[in-house]
Design brief:
By secondary structure, the protein is mainly alpha-helical. Helix content is 56%, strand content 3%. The strands form two sheets. The protein has a two-stranded parallel sheet with strand order 1-2. The model is unreliable at 83-92 and 114-119 (pLDDT under 50).
C-alpha cells in the first residue's frame, strides 16, 4: 500500500483509496474533478460522482462548484501561476493544491500546443483552462453527481426500452412502507383465517408483522430465492384433541399450594430453583390452567416441572426413589403433546413462509409497476 498523491494519481484505470472519516475525501474528489476537466478535457456531465446520501450529494455538489469558482478566480487573476507566486499568496491566501493542479494542467496544455501546418493555432494554455472551467460552470446543472440509488434510477430512465422501465418512473427512496403494506395484505388473506392454535404457534415463533419488518425488506428485494427444504404436497392435518386432553388432565391435577410445598422440600439446586420464584411460578401456572381453553402460549416456568428437568436439578445424595406429585407426570404428557403438535404445525409454518416469500416478491414488484415506482 502506498500513500495517495492527489496530483499524481492516474486519471485512467482503477484506484482504490482507503480513508477514514475526516481525512479529506471530499477535498480529494473536488480536485480530481478539476483535473479531469482540465487534463483529460471531459465535459462536466461526463464525470460521474456517486455518494451515499442526499445530504452528502448536496454537500459534494456545492464543494465541487466552489472548487471550480476558486479555480476560475485564480486563472482570471493569474494568482499563483506566475513566478512571483509568493507575493500573490501574501496578497490573498490560496489553496496550494489548487494552484499546483492548475499549473500542472497549464503545463500539459503547453506541451501539446503546437499546431499542424495550415491549422489555426490552438488557444493559449491558460485561456484553454479558463474556457473549460467556464463551460463546466455554465453546464453545472448537468453535472452527474448522484446518490447510488439516484444514479441507478437515472440509468433505468435513460435506457427505458432496454431495461423495460417506465419512462416517467418515480424513484422510491424508501420502500419499507410499500413492503409492509404488502405484508399486511398477505397476513389478512393467509394468516387471519387460520385456526387460533396456528396463530399461537406463530406467536411462539415471533412470526408476527411487527417482528418481520427487517427480514421482509430483504426478502421482497432479493430474488430469485429458493426455499430450502422444498415442500411438496399438502401439510398434515392439525388434530388438537390429544393436546387438549393432556391440558385438561394437567389442569385437573394442578394445585398451586401443593406444588410450592413440593418445591420447598424437594432438595433442588437453588441456582435453578430459587425459592423466591416458587410463588410466582404457581401464580403463572394458575393463570395458564384457569384459561378458557388449551393454549400453546405456555408460561416459561412450565418446563421447570418436567420430571427430566427436576431430576437434573436434584442435589447429590437425594433419595433415589424420590417421587413428585401426580402433576409432574401430567406435565410430561402435556409437554409431549405440545412437541408433537408443534412438529405438525411446523409443516404448516414452512409452507406459509414459502407462500409469503412468493407473495412479497410478486406483489411488491407488481405494485411498483402499477405505480411506476423504482427502488433499490
Amino acid at each position: 500500500m502506498r500513500s495517495f498523491d492527489l496530483l499524481q494519481v492516474p486519471l485512467t484505470g482503477r484506484t482504490l483509496v482507503e480513508a477514514s472519516a475526516g481525512t479529506g475525501k471530499t477535498y480529494a474528489i473536488t480536485t480530481l474533478v478539476l483535473r479531469l476537466l482540465l487534463e483529460r478535457e471531459y465535459p462536466i456531465d461526463q464525470i460521474l460522482v456517486v455518494t451515499f446520501t442526499e445530504a452528502a450529494t448536496s454537500e459534494l455538489r456545492g464543494r465541487i462548484r466552489k472548487r471550480l469558482v476558486d479555480a476560475q478566480r485564480v486563472l482570471l487573476g493569474g494568482l499563483g501561476l506566475d513566478s512571483d507566486a509568493a507575493a500573490a499568496e501574501a496578497a490573498e491566501p490560496l489553496d496550494s493544491t489548487l494552484v499546483l493542479a492548475l499549473r500542472q494542467a497549464v503545463k500539459l496544455r503547453s506541451q501539446g500546443r503546437r499546431a499542424a501546418d495550415g491549422a489555426e493555432p490552438p488557444l493559449d494554455p491558460v485561456e484553454r483552462c479558463k474556457q473549460k472551467i467556464d463551460d463546466a460552470l455554465r453546464d453545472f446543472d448537468r453535472a452527474a453527481i448522484f446518490t447510488i440509488h439516484g444514479f441507478c434510477a437515472r440509468v433505468l430512465q435513460d435506457n427505458a426500452f432496454r431495461t423495460g422501465s417506465a419512462f416517467e418512473a418515480e424513484l422510491l427512496k424508501d420502500a419499507r412502507e410499500l413492503i409492509h403494506d404488502t405484508l399486511l395484505d398477505f397476513w389478512a388473506r393467509e394468516v387471519t383465517p387460520l385456526p387460533l392454535i396456528v396463530a399461537e404457534y406463530l406467536r411462539r415463533k415471533a412470526w408476527v408483522p411487527s417482528k418481520l419488518a427487517r427480514p421482509t425488506q430483504w426478502l421482497a428485494q432479493t430474488w430469485p430465492l429458493r426455499v430450502i427444504p422444498e415442500v411438496a404436497g399438502a401439510a398434515p392435518s392439525v388434530d388438537t384433541s390429544a393436546f387438549e386432553s393432556a391440558f385438561e388432565a394437567a389442569r385437573r391435577s394442578f394445585d398451586a399450594h401443593e406444588l410450592v410445598a413440593f418445591l420447598e422440600g424437594a432438595n433442588l439446586h437453588k441456582g435453578y430453583y430459587k425459592p423466591d420464584k416458587f410463588v410466582q411460578w404457581g401464580e403463572e401456572l394458575s393463570a395458564y390452567f384457569n384459561g378458557m381453553r388449551a393454549s400453546l402460549i405456555v408460561p416459561a416456568c412450565l418446563t421447570k416441572f418436567r420430571s427430566e428437568t427436576l431430576a437434573q436439578a436434584r442435589k447429590k445424595g437425594s433419595s433415589s426413589n424420590w417421587e413428585g406429585p401426580g402433576f409432574i407426570a401430567k406435565v410430561d404428557a402435556l409437554w409431549r403433546e405440545i412437541t408433537s403438535l408443534e412438529e405438525v404445525l411446523g409443516e404448516h409454518f414452512l409452507r406459509l413462509r414459502t407462500r409469503m416469500i412468493a407473495w412479497l416478491q410478486r406483489e411488491v414488484a407488481e405494485q411498483k409497476r402499477a405505480q411506476r415506482l423504482v427502488s433499490f
